Amino acid sequence: MTIERFSYQAALAAAQRVNWKIEDIVGGDRCLNFTRPFLPEALAQTGRLIFLTGEERRVLNQIRGHAYLHIFGLVEECILPFLLDHARARLDGDDHEIRALLQFAGEEAKHIQLFKRFRAEFEAGFGHGCAVIGPADEIAKAVLAHHPLGVALTILHIEWVTQRHYLDSVKDDPSLDPQFASLLKHHWMEECQHAKLDTLMVTGLAQSLDAEEIVQGVEDYLAIGGLIDRGLEQQVALDRQSFEQATGRRLTSSETEIFGQLQHQANRWTFLGSGMSHPRFLATLEALGPQHRQRVEAIGPAFC
Predict the structure, then answer these.
(1) 71, 187, 198, 283: which has the fewest Cβ within 10 Å?
(2) Rounded to 5, what percent of the chain is helix, strand, coil?
(3) What is the mean pLDDT of each run of 10 residues along the chain (304 residues)?
(4) Hey, what's the torsion of the CAs at 17, 270, 217, 94, to 10 degrees?
(5) Are 217 and 150 in contact (CB under 8 A)?
């Protein structure tokens, strides 16, 4: 599907068909199964930590799943105010556009609430609290301080990341906890439309900018990526601490170093490389100018 085939009207209609409730996914007899991994190995990449036992890798996988949803929640805490500001400026415009954007914002608010509900369920079943980066409002403030095009490109990047993760890794993995996989599936279902709306949003923003401002937007997208990367490194250290608390095992200094290197790179692929190399995201960059796609493609391999 090309950029030109996306439309606000079609995305709105699709979103209304997909719409689900949080109560459909979390609560009641729907419980996490802590005997199974939460994330596919392509994302968790715990298998390379050969000094861990199989059970320890499963525990780490679940900790990574907890952090995975938290990081998506942080991103959506940034998306929500950005969307509302973007929609407010278009209240007198196309009816389908404003309705689609407000639907988009409502779904992001729902996802934030869903991830909070998951965290409460996780902590009740896992037996230990797991530290996470934040606070969300400070991260949102840092992200939203950048050029609007840079923020919109970051949002688009994340939406395509969601698509890639589910379709390439989660969808056909029978080893995963069904409850966690269901949550990822329902998140993906709505993000399908968000990726289209984000593409339209980026394209619309770019049309009002000159070449210099587009360069600034792309540079700010990369700057936000650097901010995310620093947060991922901090999260890896927190995940290690959570792992040691949950298992009672203290890693040696050499194991700690290997853990940090491998898990940071795994997180880099999960949240950065898988978006920077996504064909749809690269196509949008190319539409802004071939040089912008080339810049991101030159940087991307460091995160893959």
Answers:
(1) 283
(2) 75, 0, 20
(3) 69 87 87 97 97 98 97 93 88 84 91 92 92 95 96 96 96 96 94 92 94 97 97 98 97 98 98 97 96 96 94
(4) 0
(5) yes
The conformation of residue 271, written as its DSSP 8-state character, comes to I
Q: Is 30 helix (H, G, I), strand (E, B) or coil?
A: strand
200: amino acid identity, one letter:
L
Cβ atoms of 67 and 241 closer than 8 Å:
no
**Residue 184 and residue 253 in contact, taking contact as beta carbons nearer than 8 Å:** no
H/E stretch holding 240 reads: helix 211-247
Any idea which residue has 């939406």 for tokens? 159
Task: Dig out the tokens for 84 from the structure.
Answer: 């509302």
Distance separating alpha carbons of residues 287 and 203, to the nearest angstrom: 8
Are 304 and 273 within 8 A, CB to CB? yes
Q: Residue 136's closest CA among 185, 83, 70, 181?
A: 70
Q: Please state, in angstroms and rounded to a whole number, the distance separating the CA atoms of residues 91 and 94.
A: 8
